[in-house]
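Fill in residues.
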């Protein structure tokens, strides 16, 4: 076994874990408020997570296409959330989104524009008008990430550390005082003392075998917060993007690329018999893509279940009724990339099916992004509550931008009045975990794959009591197979060891999803119980999850209690 050097110890005013749109927005805001900022990510800064992969639209009532107001956006958000949105968080998201878009415009993000200079806006599912801005030809996420990276890099005082896996937060007397992790490149243990900490690690869609996420979206932030004493909320609500690419094989392109083109061009969803079917599931599209994501997901799965699916287990998406010139105007250079994959949209359909895409639940916060643990904040998809039972299309990026800025400002303000309170004794368990090893630990990569298969089967879009109970049994078996200590470290970039720590987070977070889904005996938004198909008024409530003496505890709370 290679000897790993002694640990590295760092200090920061504001430690931000996660460097997507939320993390970078928080870093910029905290720095500009005078804080000493350390931005850490397990990937390259600004190049991991969900933002850089986002190819679609950003909802904001900028009103440049048609008259608009944030209150209209707010009403659409509440409607999509099926009664479970935290009204304060939803209002913050909608009210401050236009300012965030204009700020990015000032930073030259490159929003698509009309010839007269107005931003182009399109009407995404669930919105009452064209409200979503974008960067042309599937470039929104990359352009936004590049803009934020540039702003971070221009602020030399923001320290940036990539390839750092955070294992646990450190809590002293009810206050977060820092974090413990290890360098992926060297294997060294890293401790970070911080006056305040912001979790901006994104969601949990890596829990599912078929997902649109990067490899670091396994719910790390939820697990960190839970173990530190924070409360999670709405963990049962996992959003499946209804038309993720299924077949033919698509290389070098995002599986969720079809969404903007469907609602721009009216792409038809057809079952295996060649018939449109969304209208059979209480959704009126009339040639336009209007069905919310939870409804479309349900409709597709029911068609497949009834034997009316496509050969690979999805349905067909067709643009064959759209003139070629119109296709080229909408798709631009993407047409040539599709041709390289053997896809001619004027002649052929593609197969699509639901794919795990976003998580509505997360860490419970106040409008100041404060968690229930002193000096611990959260931002972006790591936050739960703003989207209720189903996220409105286009709300993910403004959530990251707005909540990131708020968290950065508040963390900087809070940190000004305190000093570091790091104590090695409070980090004992985390340091011991990184020091211990178990050569007999199970194959973590294989166990992750087994977990993903199980979650897809039993805790996906359609759920039953029997399936969820089977999931709990499998989770227990996976915990026993994984063991309580990691395999010995061999070198830098030790993927075997990283897989084990990923699995540790993923198993805890998966259990919060399954336990919450089992307890909610109704169907609402992204949570569909086959054995409880009705929406029940008594369940117009949030479920909170805490960790007490190693066991999960669920509590039902009134919305925005």
């Amino acid at each position: 076994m290679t000897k790993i050097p002694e640990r590295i110890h760092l200090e920061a005013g504001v430690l931000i874990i996660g460097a997507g749109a939320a993390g970078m927005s928080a870093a910029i805001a905290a720095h500009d408020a005078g804080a000493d900022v350390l931005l850490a990510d397990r990937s390259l800064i600004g190049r991991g997570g969900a933002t850089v992969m986002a190819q679609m639209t950003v909802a904001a009532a900028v009103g440049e296409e048609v008259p608009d107001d944030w209150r209209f956006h707010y009403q659409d958000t509440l409607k999509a959330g099926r009664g479970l949105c935290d009204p304060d968080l939803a209002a913050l998201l909608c009210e401050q989104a236009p300012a965030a878009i204009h700020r990015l415009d000032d930073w030259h993000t490159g929003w698509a524009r009309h010839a007269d200079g107005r931003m182009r806006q399109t009407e995404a599912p669930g919105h009452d008008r064209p409200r979503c801005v974008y960067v042309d030809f599937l470039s929104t996420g990359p352009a936004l990430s590049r803009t934020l990276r540039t702003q971070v890099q221009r602020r030399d005082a923001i320290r940036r550390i990539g390839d750092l896996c955070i294992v646990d937060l450190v809590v002293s007397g009810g206050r977060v005082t820092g974090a413990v992790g290890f360098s992926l490149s060297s294997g060294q243990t890293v401790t970070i003392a911080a006056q305040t900490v912001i979790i901006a690690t994104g969601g949990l869609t890596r829990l599912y075998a078929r997902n649109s996420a990067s490899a670091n979206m396994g719910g790390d932030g939820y697990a960190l917060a839970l173990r530190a004493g924070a409360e999670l909320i709405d963990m049962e609500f996992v959003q499946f993007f209804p038309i993720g690419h299924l077949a033919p094989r698509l290389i070098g392109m995002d599986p969720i690329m079809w969404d903007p083109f469907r609602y721009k061009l009216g792409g038809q969803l057809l079952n295996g018999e060649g018939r449109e079917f969304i209208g059979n599931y209480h959704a009126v599209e009339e040639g336009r893509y209007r069905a919310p994501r939870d409804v479309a997901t349900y409709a597709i799965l029911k068609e497949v279940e009834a034997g009316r699916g496509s050969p690979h287990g999805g349905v067909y998406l067709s643009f064959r009724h759209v003139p070629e010139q119109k296709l080229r105007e909408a798709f631009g250079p993407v047409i040539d990339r599709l041709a390289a994959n053997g896809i001619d949209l004027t002649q052929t359909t593609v197969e699509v099916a639901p794919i795990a895409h976003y998580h509505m639940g997360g860490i419970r916060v106040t409008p100041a992004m404060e968690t229930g643990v002193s000096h611990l904040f959260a931002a972006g998809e790591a936050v739960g509550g703003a989207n209720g039972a189903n996220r409105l299309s286009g709300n993910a990026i403004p959530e990251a931008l707005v909540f990131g800025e708020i968290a950065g400002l508040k963390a900087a303000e809070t940190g000004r009045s305190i000093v570091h309170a790091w104590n090695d004794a409070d980090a004992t368990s985390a340091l011991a975990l990184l020091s211990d090893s178990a050569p007999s630990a199970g194959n973590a990569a294989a166990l992750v794959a087994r977990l993903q298969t199980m979650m897809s089967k039993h805790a996906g879009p359609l759920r039953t009591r029997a399936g969820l109970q089977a999931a709990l049994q499998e989770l227990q078996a996976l915990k026993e197979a994984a063991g309580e200590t990691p395999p010995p470290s061999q070198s830098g970039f030790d993927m075997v060891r990283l897989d084990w720590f990923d699995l540790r987070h993923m198993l805890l977070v998966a259990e919060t999803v399954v336990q919450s889904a089992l307890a909610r005996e109704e169907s609402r938004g992204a949570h569909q119980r086959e054995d409880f198909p009705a929406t029940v008024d008594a369940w117009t409530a949030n479920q909170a999850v805490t960790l007490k003496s190693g066991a999960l505890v669920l509590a039902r709370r009134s919305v925005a209690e």
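The mean pLDDT is 93.
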